[in-house]
Amino acid sequence: MTPPYYFGTIAALSEALSVGKVSSLQLMREVIARTREVEPRVGAFNSFDELDALAQASASDLRRTEGRTLGLLDGIPIGLKDVIAVEGQPLTASSRMLANFVSPYDATVTRKLKAAGAICWGRLNLDEFAMGSSTENSAFKPTRNPYNLECVPGGSSGGSAAALAAGCAIATLGSDTGGSIRQPASFCNVVGLKPTYGLVSRYGLVAYASSLDQIGPMTRTLEDAAIVLGVIAGHDRNDSTSYPAQIPDYRSAMTTVRGPWRIGIPKEYFGEGLDPEVESAVQAAIAHYRTLGCEIRTVSLPHTQYGIAAYYIIATAECSSNLARFDGVRYGHRSSEARDVNELYFKSRAEGFGQEVKRRIVLGTYVLSSGYYDAYYLRAQKVRALIRNDFLAAYRDVDAILTPVAPTPAFRHGAKKDPLELYLNDIYTIGVNLAGLPAVSIPCGFTRAGLPMGLQLIGQPFREAELLAIGRAYEREHPWAERHPSL
Amino acid sequence: MSSEPNINIEHIATLARIALTDDEKRIFASQLGDVLAYIEKLREVDVSGVEPMAHAFPVFNVWIEDVSGPALPVEAVLRNAPASRDNMISVPKVVE
Amino acid sequence: MQYEAVIGLEVHVQIRTESKIFARVRTGYGFEPNTLTDPVVLALPGVLPVMNKAALDAVIKAGLMLGCRIAPVCKWDRKNYFYPDSPKNYQISQYDQPICSGGSVEIELPGTARNLMGEHKRIPLTRIHLEEDVGKLNHAAGDSLIDFNRAGTPLMEIVSEPAMHTPDEAFAYLTALRTVMIYAGISDCDMEKGQLRCDANISIRPKGEQKLGTKVELKNLNSISFVRDGIGHEIKRQIALLSSGGKISQETRDYDGMTGTSQSLRSKEMAHDYRYFPDPDLMPVKVDDAWKDLLQAECPELPFEKQRRFFEQYRLPYTITSVLIPDRGLCDYFEKAVGHAGEGRAQPVGNWIVNDLLREMNVQKQSLAESRVRPEHIAELVKLIDEGTLLSNLAKDVFVEMAATGMRPAPIIDARGLKATTSVDELEQWCREAIQSNAKSLADFKAGKDSAINAFKGPVMKAAKGKANPKLVDETLRRLLAQI
To answer: How many distinct structural domains can be found in chain C?
Structure first.
């Protein structure tokens, strides 16, 4: 491979590291220099700790010289969304509430990355508490799309997508509750994988909606996604919802699983509101699969139209409870105005949370409040079951489902102000979270205006290897991610 | 689910312990009204006989045996605390 | 008008486990503040609960012992409310699917006298569920200080039906419940340490009326006698209020045991709405027969069942069982001693335990485990007395030495030369001498005054240095007198 290394893939860089073509310290220095250069324009980082990263890089180089290299990720800088705990580092969730919070513990994924030798690099910006799809809801600053600084990078993992696209990390981790990995991946021309619910431990992930949240990799290629997933996946005793699944070697499995596959196209995902450029890019991908000999089948997911309503009930209800701990008592922002504990709650939370977070807490509190539980939460959970059943029924006939990721490419900053309008944008990604399925967003071209677009492949539970293999069949011949932004 | 969702924003904000300004109350009430009106869609769905889905992949009896591990040192407990005294978290007087 | 009180109790029992219910840090009382916490207990951002199997075992055991139905499947719910002692501002609890439902607690009401057994009855239970304890707030002059050591301790809430009518019943209920919990090793139930806490729901209604009156919740009944006093006080307050034309308002009152008064608490949640919903972080619990059977096998005999068995098997009087039964260890000790002494000697064994052993333990401030008197020692003592080797008037001293030294009684008796005289010749000789040296009493006896025999006994005992068996002395004297 050739410089600049900061646009390299894990696969290529680990090879370069192993043959001594580059050292981890050199790579880290390059990434730091790149970050210093572009970060003022992109705004992907809430913070980064250069000395800590360089120390981790030196330690990796030392391991390598002593023949104790820990694996493919050893010495590779991986950025973490600022909702994933790293011991001794800030954990802000891009909220004023946690502006000064330093985590005393590692998330399970952090522990696993460290055990694999990866350099945990930077705290990446997001919509406050992962609530949003534009990273405009960060309490600190909006992140900009490296392909067009006037546009949003998507969200909520906008910092993770933008940092990767801008060459400020080799891979990043995001979290996905209703599309928060996949949508920014599609807006920023990177791969974003939301694993099956329960495959990756949530321990140490600041919870938004517990029954929907999953951590996943954002990478330049599907192969890299497989490498990172292989490290972070697996049963964790600290997360009761972590599933005791067998973890294959995703990287080798994705090359051995072979098609042709039966690919489902859900008619409900290609209706009104879908941008024509996005639609034609996705159609082109479908055509590609057809030329590969895949059977393309129209399938129906009849409850799709209820997904957003069910999602916003379940997610806000859970968030209203999950975010109750942010009260200014044990940690976090405390109002200086409070004369008693009740005032402390009211004022600290009013001052510490942004508008969207307050809005969702209020909605969630309302749907759980006395007399409404059955009508809202319970009903939403039943609709959720129906949505999952739709997918499971479709999988009797197809191996994977192909859809757009988002109805439009990245929109301009400040373009979408109405909350409901923003919520409706999650239409293609939300069903996956409700059903607990794995899905990946893969770059599928650029608009005439030069904005990236993505396609979504939705797989069957715990069959990420197959999902990645199907994606690889497209990516191999359409390596859109090799096109970098000019910053 | 009432056919005309009417959110008592004051009461809900009290339950959620968030002080809202009058402007926020007005804006939230109208925005949440829109969202709730949208959510009314769910009433169309026939959910009779459907088991609510609480977990994507439920597993029973996920537990750990009764063994204790290390405690967090008290300095670490207090490091992020806005106020503390005598190794305890201090809060303004609790009014019963 | 005659009123009847209706009382239901909500009892919280801390389960004795090594680690907390959803975190792997140890539980404990009396530790330095905030030294028993971890990220999960403190509800730091990102942490998740994982349940502790031992807490489930304990609550299922409690349910089995109290005859509850054990739910085949149950789940966890979040009870949402803000309070500074609650780190997450929600409590993980069980709302509509408690792990145990139904069942009852057998109680004994006070007897008409201390040595008479009182009436037994069963107080039905509504449910038992599992939840987590909160931290502790210490109110200072200018602020409140929070210690989270207690937070996350497994807690079971035992809810009775409103089926009690007097403070005595409530007292008996709590006593019985506590004994069962201690028997099963579920909790030490030390109210001073907050291991057992009790709230009471109290209402009154005209006697004969079926409809329940407005209930008042009485909190902070933090000793068993406060429960009795507090409830008594509240019943009187309600009757006085109704009799004077007042109205009972549904409220929560705080009882102050020191002053014997109560006052209304302003609602701690401004608007009570707990917004229960299933906790998405925890998986449901399934209890199958195999698990239940395993726990059933670990359940000890219930206290009152043991008492009935002691009546039948050992013919023990109520006065002994009423001391033994509340202490399972003491019962086991008793049965071990009886095993060595033989069932026929159960009653004297029981007497030695409830009188002398407990007295010595009390004097030495020892627990049963610390006492140096072993069950086989008591058995031996009782046997020696029974066989006439040791005279009961000397036995108390022997016991004191047993307790002090941990020695068996026989060597003590030997060392101190306390063995009762068993030589018939020697005894006959002393008896002859006593008769010969007291002609007046001999004449009296022969004239039919039976009590005159006692005049000979003193000199005999004196000659025997107190070590003669009085029964034997009496027999020998009568035999010799008859020959004269």
So the answer is: 3
The Cα C7–Cα C232 span in angstroms is: 11
**Domain limit, last residue, from C373, C399, C416:** C416
Q: How far apart are CA A105 and CA A109, in angstroms?
A: 12
Q: Using CB atoms within 10 A of its CB, is residue C355 exposed (0-12), middle (13-18) or buried (19+)?
A: middle
A-contacting residues of B 57-96, CB under 8 Å?
57, 59, 62, 64, 72, 76, 79-83, 89, 91-95
Between C269 and C300, the more confident residue is C300
Spell out which residues of chain A touch residue C78, defining contact as CB-CB under 8 Å: 321
pLDDT at A416: 84
Pairing of strands C100-101, C69-70: antiparallel
**pLDDT of C78-99, one tens digit each?**
999 999 999 999 999 999 999 9
Percent of chain C with pLDDT over 70: 98
C185 and C270 housed in the same domain: yes
Tell me the pLDDT band of B2, cut-offs 50, 70 and 90: very low
Residue C435 and residue C410 in one domain: no
Q: Given an 8 Å threshold on Cβ–Cβ distance, is B54 in contact with C37?
A: no
Q: What is the span of the domain harbouring residue C412?
A: 301-416
Contacts of B64 in chain C (CB under 8 A): 24, 50-53
Q: What type of residue sits at position A56?
A: Q
| pLDDT tens string C201-217 | 999 999 999 999 999 99
For A309, which of B9, B17, B41 is closest by C-beta distance?
B41
Judged by CB atoms closer than 8 Å, whether chains meet at B70 and C38 is answered as: yes
pLDDT at C179: 98
Q: How far is B44 from chain C (nearest CA, A)?
A: 23
Q: Which amino acid is at B29?
A: A
> How open is the CA angle B11-B17-B20, to the nearest 5 degrees?
70
**At residue A456, does pLDDT exceed 60?**
yes
Q: Domains, chain B, ranges and CATH?
A: 9-44 (1.10.20)
Q: Determine the Cα–Cα distance for residues A182 and A454; give it in Å rounded to an integer.
A: 8
Please give the structure tokens belonging to residue A219.
């990478």
Query: For residue range A93-149, what is the model confidence (pLDDT) as tens digits?
Result: 999 999 999 999 999 999 999 999 999 999 999 999 999 999 999 999 999 999 999
Whether residues C265 and C400 share a domain: the answer is no
Can you tell me the distance from the alpha carbon of B7 to that of A371, in angstroms, rounded to the nearest whole number? 13
User: What CATH number should be reported for the domain holding residue C463?
Assistant: 1.10.10.410
What pLDDT does A20 receive? Answer: 96
| C-alpha torsion sign, points C305, C308, C312, C315 | positive
Does the predicted interface ipTM exceed a cut of 0.90? yes
Three-state secondary structure call for residue C370: coil
The nearest alpha carbon in chain B to A339 belongs to B92
Beta bridge partners of C217: C201, C252
Q: What band does B4 get if pLDDT is binned at 50, 70 and 90?
A: very low
Q: Do C18 and B78 touch (CB under 8 A)?
A: no
Q: C100, C63 in Cβ contact below 8 A?
A: yes
Confidence class for position C417, pLDDT limits 50, 70, 90:
confident
Q: How many residues does chain A have?
A: 487
